[in-house]
Amino acid sequence: MTPSDNDQSTVESVDAIVQTLSAPDGATRRWPAEWEPQSAVWFSWPHNQETWPGHYSRIPEAFSTLIRAACQFVPVKVLAAGNLAQEATRHFGRSDRIEIVDIPTNDCWIRDYGPTFAWEGDEVIGIDWRFNAWGGKYPPWDDDAAAAKKICQLASIRCQFSEMGLEGGAIEGDGTGRLLTTPSCVETATRNLGWSRQKIAAELHSQLGTTEIVWIDGGGLDGDDTDGHIDQMARFVNPENVLCAVSSDPADPNHLGLERNFKQLLAWADQTTPRVKIHRLPTPPPRHIGDARVPESYCNFLMLGSAAVLMPTFRQPVHDAAAIGLVGDLLPGREIIGVDAYDFAWGLGAWHCASQQQPAPPSR
């Protein structure tokens, strides 16, 4: 399908969802892409049993599998305060590739409350967005809200606070200034009361060097509690290719919304520079625990620089293999590793949500 196959209203909506900003002369701020060199990847030990009600007993080992996979490629730092440090070490063992960090947290979703690392000239800095647990959903969040500043202090990185409410999973970038997001989890009264889209865009431009924003607003995943984080729906793998979550089942409640997202991305891809190819990445079949849908998406992968991609798998052999195969085709020479997220996803997230990459300093 090409943009010309879309209905006219979708094509006409491109101007409404794409926002361009001019880079000022001498601007040096840039948000590196996830496939660029990394000096570390940060995680937070999962300890909040309410995140996986009735299923927490399987979570430490599932998380440890992720840590062991990641540390093969990038040094790993794990937030685990007090007695949690011993618990974490007991599960994944001691390694000179894994550092336990004594910073307290309320939950494990460090993508959302950890710093967004950017470059300013030849310096790595950390952006500390205002965090209120996805619009005030899960109190208390005081430890999580304080973690970004502490991470920057520990890493000897300058920390810059932003008054804008933003979770890291709400933004996706390609390292060239283009950014994908959704208005449903940024342009809302629960995060940014009184903030216009223009003001939000200006803050993203100021903090990350963003020059083009695509506001994807077709729909999210049933069961998602983030109000539509982009890292469950659309991800760059390089500046020319984007993976977009879709549902192959017309009866799936997610089907129509994800198709709208796909069509919006198609229309944008044809007019941006460099042009982008949008690839369909089918979600696994719907799964429920009790009456609750588990929001599973293969888009929630973690890229470890140019070395490897850790893909969430959901014990759906055909779908898991197809997702891994597609990413492998787009990234030849990269190790594409499936890491079982079947139990972990009951917490309503997967491997991208549970991680935050720290880029290496820019080359001089």
What does this structure look like?
26% of the residues lie in helices and 25% in strands. The chain contains 11 helices and 20 strands. The protein has helices spanning 8-12, 14-17, 59-70, 84-92, 110-113, 133-136, 142-154, 189-192, 197-208, 255-269, 317-330; strands spanning 18-20, 29-30, 38-44, 76-79, 98-101, 116-120, 123-130, 158-165, 172-173, 178-181, 212-215, 234-238, 241-246, 277-282, 288-289, 292-293, 302-304, 308-313, 335-340, 356-359. Strands 1-11-10-9 form a 4-stranded mixed sheet. A 4-stranded mixed sheet has the order 2-6-7-8, with helices on both faces. The chain has a 4-stranded mixed sheet with strand order 5-4-3-20. Helix 4 links the parallel strand 4 and strand 5.
At the first level of CATH, the class is Alpha Beta
Helix content: 25-40%
Count of β-strands: 20
Report the uncertain regions.
1-12
Number of helices: 11
Please name the CATH topology: L-arginine/glycine Amidinotransferase, Chain A
Structural class: alpha/beta
Q: In CATH, what is the homologous superfamily?
A: L-arginine/glycine Amidinotransferase, Chain A
Give the neighbour order of strands across the main sheet. Answer: 1-11-10-9
Separation of the first and last Cα atoms = 42 Å
- The CATH architecture assignment turns out to be 5-stranded Propeller
User: Roughly how many Å is the radius of gyration?
Assistant: 19 Å
Largest sheet: 4 strands, mixed
In total, the number of domains comes to 1
State the shape.
globular
The residue-averaged pLDDT reads 94
What portion of residues belong to β-strands? 25-35%
